[in-house]
Amino acid sequence: MLSIRNLHARVEEKEILKGFSLDVKPGEVHAIMGPNGSGKSTLASVLAGREDYQVTGGEVIFEGKDLLALAPEDRAREGIFLAFQYPVEIPGVSITNFLKTAIAEQREYRGLPPMEPKEFLQLMKEKKAYVEIESNLTNRSVNEGFSGGEKKRNEIFQMAMLNPKLAILDETDSGLDIDALRVVANGVNRLKSPENSAIVITHYQRLLDYIVPDVVHVMYDGRIVKTGGKELALELEEKGYDWIKKELAAL
Amino acid sequence: MADTLEGQSLKEKLLAGFHIRKAALLPDNTILNGFRDKAAESFSRLGFPGKKHEEYRYLQVEKLFTSELNQTLSPEEIDLPNESDVLNHPLLAEDAYRLVMLNGIFSKKLSRIEGLPTGVVMGSLAEALRNNDAHALTNLGTLAKADSDSFLALNSALFQDGIYCYIPSNCKLPKPVQLIELVSSPEALLIQPRVLFVSDESSEAEVIQTSISTKGNTSIASNSVTEILVEKNAQVNWITLQSEEHTAGHFHTTEAHVKQHGKFETVTISLGSGMLRNNLNIVLDAPECEAHLYGYYHPVNTQIVDNHTLVDHRYPRCESNELYKGVVDDSATAIFNGKVYVRKDAQKTNAFQSNKNILLSETGTVNTKPQLEIYADDVKCSHGSSTGVLDPEQLFYLRARGISLEKARVLLLNAYAGEIIEHIPHETLRNAVAEVLANRI
User: Fold this and answer.
1) Measured between beta carbons, which residues in chain B are less than 8 angstroms from residue A76?
2) Closest by CA position to A34, among listed A250, A230, A222, A207
3) Of A77, A124, A140, A117, whose CA–CA distance to B401 is shortest?
4) B410 interface with A at CB cutoff 8 Å
């Protein structure tokens, strides 16, 4: 589904991604772990299409299309969903209105008829339950006055509503306590299917107890340096990122 | 201080016209004629403000008040615009009393004033003066002092007719009252609408002052004056909607005085004419009264919107609160000058003011100047002003969910305007205004 080949990217004259490669097939959950500064957030930003980042080499093919040639809204409409690490507040724009607009634009792009209001309300009700969101929360403005945990849950709620092919979770666990983590992970797990995939970017192993990955990659200095099964995450937890750095130095 | 300019030919024309047609203007009433004579004298002395005049430095007044403008002095000379333009307008409130002026002349035919509560007077200002209405005669010209400003002087000398409303003590108007000022003419015309609104002690009223223009070739300039008296313990909500794309310009002066325990809340929505200038002057003329001022403006193309406001705290323990927000597109210009005076005896004043602007294009201009003059020493006052762009992080978030850049901007601008529109009490009107604003983007 997603094929990243030798991706190089920089921000403000500094090269962050230095030959990043990754293949994700439908139905797979890939975890990307790494120390601070390894380029994890840059990867998410470049895939979503943030304009501050320049791609200086390599390619990204998503479902046969050149992803880097698409505008951010088209990448989303093609089926990519980025769950932000720091979701921004948008006072005055209600969550309901926001999602209604997003769904309408997505369906128009895909040549589908618009969703009936009744169907939309039903969908909202159903998906709120995934992340244990109260009914009245959706009348509020997007993320306004939300705690960290509420913001992350709202990201997963949106994900459930938009039903993407590829979800990129950018440090979704940062700032969450165990209960919030459990709720968020449950939501993600309920959305798993053989047709869609996820890239879970995280610093800590803890999240991976709940969202069990098929493949674990370790990222360091802008590229993947080690790949393994879910045991790799546990090994990292035990030995720390220094272990990886030492191994690389020894090569 | 008068700083006159070459545009004196219009000034001379207007003064000459005044002397010739004085007798034909309004009722032959010695009190009123004295009033007009003094105003003409003031206008003769002051003239139109020139480029060096501090209060008008960002406007090219002479571009609007040119000698081509004709002052029509009798109703027969005025080309009345189409009635259907009034009756089909999106900003028309269905369930409201309606008073209509066409090119500054009151139209009884288009107005709707049945079922007024006892003691309420609504209708033609000229007629009220002719009938020696006591409240009209006592209050006309007392809030808008003709000797202080060229445009007040000009209007006071030359206005022909207008709208007059009197709300008696303890009366709570059951419906809002909409004042509609429709301007339209194929010729270059200078019109001078006048409004006098008196809300007596403990009364309550909601007013929607709506200025609209029709499509077509118009080079109309409008110089309007509105006087509003909010008596003790009265509450007036005044919504000003300015949707005059097809006029050359509109200078709109509002003078409001608020008495003890009175409350005056005003929302001004300005959608730009060629050159729109609002002078909103509020005097808190007693202890313990309140004024809330909200404004929203969105000039496009080469339009200019200039909001000059003044809140004058003269007595202790009054509160004022002001928020003006604007969006400037294309090569349009927005000007904001908000003055707050807190006089020596106005202790325990709370006065807050804020002006926010968003520039949507690189060729738009914003000039903003808050001005606080505080002479009392036990007060809480603040002011702030900012000019920026739409938040790029918010835009990206919306796009990352599949919403196009254009649609994302619309969502954000609607949210931005929402903070002002929510102060319009009338729900249907609030929605109508929101829709008009959304279509503008």
Assistant:
1) 399-402
2) A222
3) A77
4) no
pTM of the predicted protein model: 0.88
- Give the Cα separation of B122 and B79 in Å (integer): 24
pLDDT band, very low/low/confident/very high, at A236 (cuts 50, 70, 90): confident
CA angle, residues B24, B28, B29, in degrees to nearest 5: 145
Are the CB atoms for B27 and B129 separated by under 8 Å? yes
Backbone angles phi, psi at B276, to 5 degrees: -110, 125
Nearest residue of chain B to residue A99 (CA atoms): B401
> pLDDT tens digits for A144-196?
998 888 899 899 999 999 999 999 999 988 888 888 888 888 888 888 899 99
pLDDT classification of A243: cutoffs 50, 70, 90: confident
Q: Cα separation of B349 and B315, whole Å? A: 8
- Give me the half-sphere count of Cα atoms (radius 13 Å) on the Cβ side of residue B9: 8
Instruction: Name B386's Cβ contacts closer than 8 Å, sequence gap at least 6.
Output: B355, B356, B357
Mutation test of the interface with chain B: which of A101, A109, A159, choosing the one with the most B Cβ atoms within 10 A?
A: A101
Q: B412 — contact with chain A (CB < 8 Å)?
A: yes
Report the distance separating Cα B337 and Cα B309, nearest Å.
6
The residues facing A83 across adjacent strands are: A169
* Distances in whole angstroms, Cα of residue A149 to Cα of each of A186, B190, B379: 14, 61, 41
CA B121/CA A59 separation, integer angstroms: 76
> CB distance A82–B400 less than 8 Å?
yes
A91-123: burial string, b at 16+ Cβ within 10 Å, e else? bbbbbbbbbbbbbbbbeeeeeeeebeeeebeeb
CA distance A71 to chain B (A): 9
Angstrom distance (rounded) from CA A217 to CA A244: 12
Across the interface, of B401, B412, B419, the residue whose CB is closest to A76 is: B401
> Quick one: DSSP state of residue B189?
B
Which pLDDT tens digit goes with each residue over A33-68? Answer: 998 888 999 999 999 999 999 999 999 999 999 999
**CB-CB neighbors (< 8 A) of A142 in chain B:** 397
Predicted pLDDT of residue B29: 52
3-state secondary structure at position B5: coil
For B11, B284, B286, B288, B312, the CA distances from B231, given in Å and listed in that order, are 36, 11, 10, 12, 16
The fraction of chain A above a pLDDT of 70, given in percent, is 100
Close Cβ partners of A121 (under 8 Å, ≥ 6 residues apart): none
Distance in angstroms (rounded) separating the CA atoms of residues B27 and A138: 61
Tell me phi and psi for residue B57, to 5 degrees: -70, -20
Residues of chain B with pLDDT under 70: 1-8, 23-31, 33, 72-81, 216-218
DSSP-assigned states of every residue in A63-115: TTEEGGGS-HHHHHHHTEEEE-SSPPPEEEEEHHHHHHHHHHHHHHHTTPPPP
Give the Cα separation of A182 and A23 in Å (integer).
Answer: 28
Please tell me which of the candidates B396, B412, B419 has its beta carbon nearest to residue A72: B396
Which pLDDT score is estimated for B27? 54
**Residues of A153-176 as b/e, b for ≥16 C-beta within 10 angstroms?**
bbbbbbbbbbbbbbbbbbbbbeeb
Q: Which of B396, B412, B414 lies closest to A50 in CB terms? A: B396
Continuous segment of H or E residues that includes residue B129: helix B125-130
